[in-house]
Amino acid sequence: MPSTVQELRAKFDQALIAAFGEEMAGTDPMLVPASNPKFGDYQCNVAMSLTKALKNNPRAIATQIIEQLDVSEICEPPEIAGPGFINLRLKPEYLETELNTVLTDERLGIPKVDDPQNVIVDFSSPNIAKEMHVGHLRSTIIGDSIARVLEFLNHEVLRLNHVGDWGTQFGMLITYLREVYPEALTTADALDLGDLVAFYRKAKIRFDEDEEFKEASRKEVVKLQAGAEDSRRAWGILCEQSRREFQVIYDLLDIKLEERGESFYNPLLPKVVEDLDKTGLLEENQGAKCVFLEGFQNKEGEALPLIVQKSDGGYNYATTDLAALRYRINKDGADRIIYVTDAGQANHFAQVWQVARKAGWIPDNVEVVHVPFGLVLGEDGKKLKTRSGETVRLRDLLDEAINRARKDLEMRLKEEGRTESEAFINNVAQVVGMSAVKYADLSQNRTSNYVFSFDKMLSLQGNTAPYLLYAYVRIQGIRRKGEIDFKQVGTEAKIKLQEEAELTLAKHLLQLNEVIETVEKELLPNRLCQYLFELSQKFNQFYDQCPVLKAEDVQRISRLALCDLTARTLKLGLSLLGISVLERM
Ligand code: ARG
Questions:
Q1: Are 185 and 177 in contact (CB under 8 A)?
Q2: 336-342 and 118-122: which strand pairing?
Q3: From the alpha carbon of 321, which atom of ligand 1 is closest?
């Protein structure tokens, strides 16, 4: 079903045409939510923007519009205010009809898109043999949520993990592997290398202190690139080890991803350079092959180059992204490619796309988007570090969230005099811990830095996962006491709105559609978080002011149905954030 805003837009479109002629078709009515509920629910600002074109004052224009505006089924009679705003207030009968329709719909009134796109979400993308750090955690959480929203809308989504599994560091790693586990290169058994990050550090020390080791590493890169079997095997062992460590994190966070690392595009790199050469864009500069960029300059004001092949013949991160871009467009048939990385990579993507555009590799109907995000800060406002100043291991961080959630829960159980099974406690701790971490990240506007605080994210108060989960649990409690099958409520109940708190909740429930539409376009999951937070608040106000279980007949059923719809909206909304609900907590 169309959202209220969509319905109103269509009505304004008709009115504008009726009032001022066909050429008005498609004019944006500039509908916004009313700034103050006193003035109604929506405000239309279009009259002010038409004064020049129509050579009239905005109030007169607004009058002409509402003379033609047929919204009697949706709103009370529109009112003109100030210089020429048109204020609209939704009718309770309209809200009731809409809600009763949503109530019987599994998708809660959110239509699937008519024209599904092929979307690639490139996210998480850690680097082999290096630490998966909090930046990757942000990418993982944000990328997963974006993918979930697009999937729900019926887009065809390919979730790609562009892992850094290729590059000169493998020369050093394989050389070290040969030194410490020579048997690994000949036996068929998988190898447990233990902590790969520690392994990396030790390899790096060897590399820095020993010239012979350094030379061997250089040769090893060449061998690997040439496809020597034992080098390939060593490389495979290192990748497999990392993969296992990453998978622990993905399992904890319930993340599905398809690995297609940098190495996948390796065979395609020479062709990228060759084709760039054909377009005439390629230049040689001190032995390196590059394309000079527009809008990127050094301190002297000279154009910066994007190097696609180094003087030693090696390729760069950017070359791989050029190859990946071509593959995704030509082979995967992508219509929209979304890259979720820290804001620090904005220039990298702008440069790659500039070169690809100039080469004619990005057709007009393909959209490439960078979804940047800020840093994760500690409570001291500096980059998140452990007490001893080291980078925080994701595994430790997630474990701590779960442990703290367990402690909070055990304390609460004690206070409430409840006893619960070990299985119950483990499950709640796990869900609350992981939800808290995800939600704390998603609820921030991703472009800003965010402060990582276990205390804040696990609090039952405020814009947190526990607060939302608790609202859901509260409703489930009502349901159990109501002794009424909510499924039955869904088909038979009729929502009747009387109290102000009911109307407020009802209006909010009907905005889910608009919110999801915004997330689809702007790729900002925090909009959905804000919506769900306000939903919980409005539900709590409703529940404080309107008796549900003690109400009589029709009102009781109606209010139970409002509870049901709130719970289902919370559950759906949270699932799009990658958060699962609890029946009790
Ligand atoms: N591996 C990179 C990093 O850790 C992120 C890759 C992002 N995706 C891409 N297509 N460049 O920073």
A1: yes
A2: parallel
A3: 10
Answer yes or no: do 82 and 182 share one domain: no
Structure tokens, 306 = 């994007």
Distance 523 CA to ligand 1 centre (A): 18
Pocket-testing residue among 125, 325, 326, 394, ligand 1, by greatest number of atoms within 8 A of Cβ: 125
Q: What is the pLDDT of residues 95-130, one digit of tens each?
A: 999 999 999 899 999 999 999 999 999 999 999 988
Cα of 249 vs its chain's centroid, Å: 17
pLDDT at 137 over 90: yes
Residues 190 and 71 in one domain: no
Amino acid at 400: E
Q: What is the pLDDT of residue 188?
A: 57
Q: Is the CB of 4 under 6 A from ligand 1?
A: no
Average pLDDT over residues 68-97: 95
Same domain, 53 and 181: no
- 72, HSE (Cβ side, Cα atoms, 13 Å): 3
Tell me the best of 162, 259, 351 to mutate to test the pocket of ligand 1, counting ligand atoms within 8 Å of each CB and taking the most. 162
312-320: average pLDDT:
93
DSSP-derived letter for residue 384 is P
For ligand 1, atom 9: residue with the closest CA:
162
CA 178 to ligand 1 centroid distance, Å: 28
Ligand 1 neighbour 164 (Cβ under 6 A): yes
Same domain, 424 and 523: yes
Task: Tell me the whole-structure pTM to 2 decimals.
Answer: 0.94
**Which amino acid is residue 41, in one-letter code?**
D
Per the structure, the complete domain to which residue 20 belongs is given by 4-90
Closest ligand 1 atom to Cα of 317: 11
Answer whether 42's CB lies under 8 Å from 31's CB: yes
Separation of CA 265 and ligand 1 centre (Å): 14
Q: Are residues 418 and 540 in the same domain?
A: yes
Answer yes or no: is the C-beta of 122 below 6 A from any ligand 1 atom.
yes
Answer whether 139 contacts ligand 1 (Cβ < 6 A). no
Give the atom of ligand 1 at the shortest distance from the alpha carbon of 324: 10
Number of domains in the chain: 3
Element (H, E) at 128: none
Q: Check if the interface score ipTM surpasses 0.90.
A: yes
Indicate whether 280 belongs to any domain: no
Q: Are residues 543 and 428 part of one domain?
A: yes
Helix (H, G, I), strand (E, B) or coil at 338: strand
CATH of the domain at 498: 1.10.730.10
CATH number of the domain bearing residue 61: 3.30.1360.70
164 Cα: distance to centroid of ligand 1 (angstroms): 7
pLDDT band at 271, cuts 50/70/90?
A: very high
Domain end call among 196, 227, 255: 255
Any ligand 1 atom below 6 A from CB of 262:
no
The pLDDT mean for the chain works out to 94
Position 261 in a domain = no
pLDDT greater than 60 at residue 488: no
Q: Given 255, 271, 301, which residue is the final one in a domain?
A: 255
CA of 341 to the centre of ligand 1 (A): 7
The answer, yes or no, to whether residue 191 has pLDDT greater than 80, is no
Q: Pick the closest to residue 176 from 128, 217, 236, 138 (CA basis).
A: 217
Distance in Å, CA 322 to ligand 1 centroid = 13
Per-residue pLDDT tens for 418-459?
Answer: 999 999 999 999 999 999 999 999 999 999 999 999 999 999
Residue 312 lies in a domain: no
557 and 417, same structural domain? Answer: yes
315 within a domain of the structure (yes/no):
no
pLDDT tens for each residue of 325-351? 999 999 999 999 999 999 999 999 999
Say how far apart CA 489 and CA 328 lie, in whole Å.
47
